[in-house]
Structures are given as C-alpha cells and as structure tokens.
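Why run this: before we spend reagent on co-expression, it is cheaper to look at a predicted model of the complex and decide which construct boundaries make sense. The entries below are exactly what would go into the expression plan.
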Amino acid sequence: MNTKLKWLREKIKMLDMQGMMVTNPVNIRYLTGIVAEGILLITRKENIYLTDSRYIEEVNSILTIDDGIIVHEFKDFSKDEYENFFLFCENVGFEEEYVTYAKYKQYMHQYKINNLQETEKIIEKQRMIKDEEEIEKITKACEITDQCFNHLLEFIKVGQTEKEIALEIERFFKTHGAEGNSFEPIVASGKNSSKPHAVPTDKKVDLGDPITIDMGCIYQGYCSDMTRTIFVGYVPEQIKEIYDLVLKNQCQTEKELKEGMSIKILSRMVENDFQLHGYDLVHSLGHGVGLDIHEYPFLSGKNDNLLKANMVVTNEPRYLSSWKIWCTY
Amino acid sequence: MNTKLKWLREKIKMLDMQGMMVTNPVNIRYLTGIVAEGILLITRKENIYLTDSRYIEEVNSILTIDDGIIVHEFKDFSKDEYENFFLFCENVGFEEEYVTYAKYKQYMHQYKINNLQETEKIIEKQRMIKDEEEIEKITKACEITDQCFNHLLEFIKVGQTEKEIALEIERFFKTHGAEGNSFEPIVASGKNSSKPHAVPTDKKVDLGDPITIDMGCIYQGYCSDMTRTIFVGYVPEQIKEIYDLVLKNQCQTEKELKEGMSIKILSRMVENDFQLHGYDLVHSLGHGVGLDIHEYPFLSGKNDNLLKANMVVTNEPRYLSSWKIWCTY
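The model came back. Tokens follow.
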C-alpha cells in the first residue's frame, strides 16, 4: 500500500474510526494520484475507489498493485453491497467541510453508516508537509513561472493592455510545459494596482506605471504563486521608499523561514516594521501552496503553530495604500 | 423590491417557510445582480445581504432602493443580533445541495434556527425560465461565439496544435467583449476527437482531420455553449454519413423545440433514429444554459417535464463511436 494511504489508515485508527469516505478530489489526488470523479472508501479490509465508466480505463492505467486500491464502478454494487462496505464500523470519517448537507444525508442512507464522524481536515493538515516528489513538482512550476516573468520583461511595452499581458501569461504557461494558470492572473497597472482583486482591463500600460503582476501555473497538479511589481521606463520617486520597505521585509522573512520558527512571530515582525513606517500589512503574510493554490499553513499573526521542515509557503508582504506594492515570491 | 425577490418571498411563503438563507453565489447573482462573497438573508421584515469590507463599496454601487436589499458587514452584528434575524421563524429554508455539513452546523448554531428546511433547488428551477434581459445577454454571448467560430475558420491551418487553437479561442473571447471562456474549450482533432472530455494537446492539425470544437464564452455572467465539427481540407468519405445523420437530428430537434413539447419524447426521437442507423446517443440531448454552463432543464429520455416558453437549452445530438461527430449549437 502506498505511504500516504498507510498514514491515513494509521491516523483514522488513532481517532477511533474504522473507516473513512474521502470525497474531496484534491485529497483523493494527493492520496492516490487519481484525477477523476469518484469516491475513495477506506474500509476495514480494503481501499476501494468507486467511479463511473468514463474514468475506469484512465484510473486503472495510473494505479499499480503497490497502491493497494481496488477500483470499481458505482453501478457494480447492489443496495445490500453498499450497506456492507462499512459493516461492523462504529465510526466512519467524512469530510464535513467538503460534503454538502444533501450528500451527507445520502451517504448516511446509502451506506447505512452508524456514525459519520467529522475529520477536521486531517488530510489537508497532512498535506502541509511535502515529500520529495511534491517539492520537485512545485519547484518545476516555480521555474516555469520564473521563465514567464523573464519573458514578460521583454514582452511588455508601452501601449499594451493589461488583458493582453494576462493572455500572454497564460499562453506562455500552456506552451512551456504547464497545464495552465493556477489562478486567473492579476495584471494591474497605474492606479488599478490599488485594487485588491484587480481583473485585467483594457487599460493601456503607460510610462512610469507600476505594474503588479500576480500569476502562477500548475505543473502535474502542483501550483506556483508569484507576485512581482515592475515599472515602465522609470521608477516614480514616491514609490521607491515603500518598494524598498516591502523588499526588505520579504528578504528578512526569507531568512527566518526555517523549521521551528513561530508563524505568529514571523508575521508580527513584518506587521510591526510596516506600522513603524506608517503602513498596514494587507491580509496575511503568506500561505501554503501545493495541490491547492491556497492551503495550510496560513501565515498570519493569529496562527499559533511553528513552521516545520518541508512546508512550502509564499512570502508576500504587501501594504495597504492606494498604491499597493507587492514584491513577493 | 425587485421581481425575482418578490417571487422568492411568495414561493417560500407557499412552502410554509418564514425565511431563507441564500448562499450559492450564482443564485445570489440571479436574485440581486451582486457578484461578491456573502449571504442573502430573506427574513420576515427585510432582505439583508451580509458581506465583508472588501465588497461593501461595489455591492452598494450595484443595488438601488428599488432592489429592497439592505447591505451590512458580517462584523456589524453581535452574537445576539445574529440570533434575532430569524426570531419567531418556525422554518427557515437553506440550500442543502450547496451548503456543506460543517456550514449547516455553523448556521444552526450562529443563527439559532429552529428548523433549517431543505428547499430542493427552488431557485435553480425558477432560473430555467429566462426573462428578456437574460435572453439578451445569452444572445450576445452566442453572437460573440459565432464570431469566434467564423474567425477560427480563417485562423486554423495545417500544422497548428490543438493547444494553439484553444488559446486563440480564449484570446478572441477576451478581446471581443466577453469575460472569458464559460468552460475550458475542447479542441480535438483526428483520433483525439473520440475522447469524451478531450483536453487540447500538442497534436498538430493534419489534412483530412475532423476537428471537434466545443467552446463558449461568458457575457455579463451568462454563458454560451457551441460545438462544431469541421474538416481540414476535405471530408473523409466514411464520416459523411454519420455527419449527415447528426445534422439531420439537430435540425429536426430544432423544429420541435417549442412550448409544451415533451422532453422525453424529444430525446427518444433522436435516440431511436440513431439506433435505427446503428449508433448510440451519448449522454443527453442537451441542457439548460444561463448563469451556469449546465443548468436545468436536462434534455434526456428520463425527464418527464415539458418544455416551457423562455427556456434556453442546447441542442447537441452526438453519437458514441471512435469518431465522434458533434454538430451542435
């Protein structure tokens, strides 16, 4: 059985559960590599993946005997057989933050489960610590994003629209080995760069404009997330001070990103330095990145946890102002 | 108060509910025009939209007094005030197919609701019948898609990859008034055109290839969905027969798409004609289109309802084979 499934079986045993229904497709991909529509059942005897005829061939081509997962079609089972999956199971875990109320009721009825037990994102929390293969994929996604940024420095010219630049980002990703954007890119120039969730517009890039670019790609399921602020032609005097403040904090944070560091202290350090200079930190300092673009851990002053080895997080100090500057990775 | 909210208040009254929590953002957009993160509360006295500080300004700029909606920030209210929203309400409706089990529990606790009652997609069902403004927007989305198709007929050349064509589709939409794709376009050429959910690849388009293009855009929130099969250079002899069969069925269906027509009979007519010629109909004959790319009604042999005036549906007969031909609108 693969390492991640072994971990899950151990974990639910510790939590006094005799089985689990995994339904969030991102968690299923993490545990099995499967990208399809279906449900993973961790039962007392077996790990079972249920799907429909559209995906059977692809799923079977991904899994090996070592994965320890048996694949079936939903329609293979009778009413009785569904009710037998979790026979003699007192508590069966489910993903209460993913499953709708309607599905919860359906599962209770269809599988005749004694107690569907909340699992409090155990899999999402485990996903914080990346293994070697995951780190390789995220690194590759970051490399493609770096290449894209270098390409943009050549590509962007006065008179281009934000939309044109955003489309070029996606084109670059899709033609350089990535599956596509990990989120809709933000390209915000001039005054638009102050909008928190700016959508690229038909505004043309002008001399002296700061351009905030927030972009990322997906490589084999794993995301990158990069923000850079660049300037067209020259850097306006009034922006230099704040740009340098943000950059200093980003560099400082990078040095402190190590095992055992308190997330709260890390975040407060930036908050304090910003406030000392009369600015406020926007949102949080960063977030985990992996199969989801935003995942655990969230780097904020309210997080009481410590950083651990092999976490992957963004480092994105930014301040609140009508001219927001991000210089993050 | 706007017509749609008036309808909803009447509807829940009929269902013996004294209030409703609307949480699906697509339903909120339908009822109010608001595009943001928040919750719409239909209470006994008022319609209240709760959101956070990021959206307040934008939401207030959209709504007018006529909408009859009061906007507040989540943080404006104390624990007691949350519990008062649905005071003296016996039954409060919620969207059981959208709300997660965790949120359901949170709402029960936070709003101290006596009975959160399932509403069985009442809003989604109402969305089947489009008003004039909605039809205008869908028409506009279809027009942009038509223009894109005409553009592609000029654009596509032997040697281009499926990916390049898919990127051109998105570029065209985004630079011709649409917000973007309503779904990731399918561009499947040659043997790839047999895959049910083909992702555009690096395969180059070759002479004699059929190219299946399934694409759509979003205009002011409303979707279009168009599939066409074209041929590069010439039409291979073996495909002509099935192409004509599919086209005949599409034209026939178009004639029958009118008020009072049985969806089941409509679908069975195509199924039967396909079977008569030795083919099977894939999935269903079509589906509703609106704020969602797939919505009610679903045109299948299992749907017992009749077509009504101002429904908007796709007409997409296609058959199951290693060479799938779609010629749909």
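Residues 132-155 of chain B form the longest helix (24 residues). The CA atoms of residues 59 and 116 of chain B lie 27 Å apart. Bring this page to Monday's planning discussion.
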